[in-house]
Specification:
Blueprint (H helix, E strand, L loop, with lengths): L3 E4 L4 E4 L4 E2 L18 E5 L7 H8 L5 E6 L4 E6 L3 H7 L4 E4 L9 E3 L1 E4 L3 H29 L12 H12 L4 H14 L7 H57 L2 H4 L4 H126 L4 H6 L6 H16 L6 H11 L5 H10 L4 E6 L6 E6 L1 H7 L1
Antiparallel strand pairs: 1-2, 3-7, 4-6, 4-9, 5-6, 7-8, 10-11
Helix pairs in contact: 4-5, 4-6, 5-6, 6-8
Length: 484
């Protein structure tokens, strides 16, 4: 290997580099995952005395080098112009390098080349991807615009001026289609209101004026078509007659009287011509037959429709009677229901009348009771006035009849017996609890009122002091007997 000389300011150094495989059986060097758009490689294992010029001379055979970033720790980063140059540089990984003939450790090294992730590479790759995406979007948009149906012409907004223009166009046969489309768009937009209703009505009326013209044109075209059909039939019939005449000539020429006098070539031509004419006649006959069949089928279809209509009408007439019977049944059922409802209403009315009579009787009884009470009250008032005039004390009048009923007399006897058994007295609650065993309807207030009216039979005393103060009733009938 030829030495490579590099001249510096200090001296001229003679350096050589040697590339060679250390062993053919070694596994391929491990590499990291390739970053997207990678143009930069990492080169490790450089000699300590290796310079940037040596690195350039070693790796420029892989492609154009844009930049080299060398480190003091025996490695560098090389950025190439294209991505495929990185693949070439990876093949140099695993080779040994030696500067000159020196065996010094600083002049030797083993190269390790791997992918490197650089921001410049990633930025360029992203820019390229964005450019490709823009081109793809542009291509798709152009394709969509090419396949898109043409847009309808824009419709002007409604105004009185435009309305007058459209009304004039509606009257012109050549501009009718354009004007009708504008009118339809205005109506669908909701331009019709109370102010513009008359204008729209006039335009619709103008559009309606073309109906008669179109009907007349349609009738004229149908008439022309019928005339053309007649002409076609006449011409076709004349052509078929001529074909038949020609075929008759061929058949007459094919007879033995004339056929023997023709040559072989002439006979062949006559037979071919006859076959062609017969095929034409047969095809025309089949066409006429198909047309006749279609007409016959149409006639049969019309007949079937007429028969179906007649059958449906007959069914409708026959179905009228069952419908009437069903309606009569429904009416009868409704009438029966109304009668039953009427009977129920009458029964309810009678029941209400009976209740009303009963209420009237109760009212009369209550009025009689009120009159009796009023009479008793008047008698009592007269009695009170007479007692006051005679200067009798009020206590004697009250005590003259303290027990008003037999029930109260029984209560007095039971209470007297109970208190006689309890000489130290008993509270009103204790007395009432005893009476409730005999009758649950006895009220405490009534018992207390009854005992307070009989002052010579029962008396109330206060026993206890402070919180233990209690009211007790005692039987004093024997003492009261002496007083009265």
């Amino acid at each position: 290997i030829q030495p490579i000389c590099y001249e510096t300011e200090m001296s001229i150094l003679e350096a050589t580099w040697l590339l060679g495989l250390e062993s053919k059986n070694l596994p391929p060097p491990a590499t990291r995952e390739r970053p997207p758009g990678c143009k930069t490689v990492f080169v490790g294992g450089l000699p300590e005395n290796g310079t940037e010029q040596i690195i350039v001379e070693v790796f420029e055979q892989c492609g154009e080098i844009i930049a080299i970033r060398k480190s003091k720790k025996n490695f560098c980063h090389i950025r190439f112009a294209e991505e495929y140059m990185v693949d070439k540089a990876l093949y140099l990984s695993g080779y040994r390098i030696r500067l000159g003939s020196s065996t010094d450790k600083k002049d030797t090294g083993r190269l390790h080349v791997d992918f490197a992730q650089a921001r410049d590479d990633l930025y360029e790759w992203e820019c390229k991807q964005r450019m490709l995406a823009r081109e793809e979007r542009h291509r798709r948009r152009m394709e969509e615009e090419r396949l898109r149906p043409p847009s309808p012409p824009p419709v002007v907004h409604y105004s009185d001026h435009e309305c007058s223009i459209v009304a004039e166009k509606l009257k012109d046969d050549s501009k009718f289609s354009e004007a009708v489309q504008t009118l339809l768009t205005w109506i669908e937009r909701g331009e019709v209101n109370r102010r513009s209703a008359n204008n729209f009505y006039s335009m619709i009326q103008s559009a309606n004026s073309h109906v008669r013209r179109l009907v007349n044109e349609k009738a004229a075209h149908e008439k022309d078509m019928e005339e053309a059909k007649e002409k076609f039939k006449q011409a076709l019939s004349g052509i078929l007659i001529q074909f038949e005449q020609i075929v008759a000539v061929y058949h007459s020429a094919s007879k033995q009287k004339a056929w023997d006098h023709f040559t072989k070539a002439q006979r062949k031509n006559i037979s071919v011509w006859c076959k062609q004419a017969e095929v034409t006649l047969v095809s025309q006959a089949e066409a006429l037959k198909e047309e006749n069949d279609s007409l016959r089928w149409q006639l049969d279809a019309y007949r079937n429709e007429v028969e179906l209509l007649k059958q449906e009408q007959g069914k409708a007439h026959r179905e009228d009677d069952p419908n009437k019977e069903q309606q009569l049944k429904l009416l009868q059922q409704a009438l029966q229901g109304m009668q039953q409802h009427l009977l129920k209403v009458q029964e309810e009315y009678k029941r209400k009348e009976a209740e009303l009579e009963k209420i009237k009787d109760d009212k009369l009884q209550v009025e009689k009771m009120l009159e009796n009470l009023k009479e008793k009250e008047s008698c009592a008032s007269r009695l009170c006035t007479s007692n006051q005039d005679s200067d009798y004390p009020l206590e004697k009048t009250l005590n003259s009849c303290p027990v008003k009923s037999e029930r109260e007399a029984l209560l007095v006897g039971i209470i007297s017996t109970f208190l006689h058994v309890h000489p130290f007295g008993a509270s009103i609650e204790y007395i009432c609890s005893y009476l409730h065993r005999l009758d649950n309807k006895i009220c405490t207030s009534d018992v207390e009122c009854l005992m307070s009216r009989l002052q010579h039979t029962f008396k109330q005393e206060m026993t206890g002091v402070g919180a233990s103060l209690e009211k007790r009733w005692k039987f004093c009938g024997f003492e009261g007997l002496k007083l009265t």
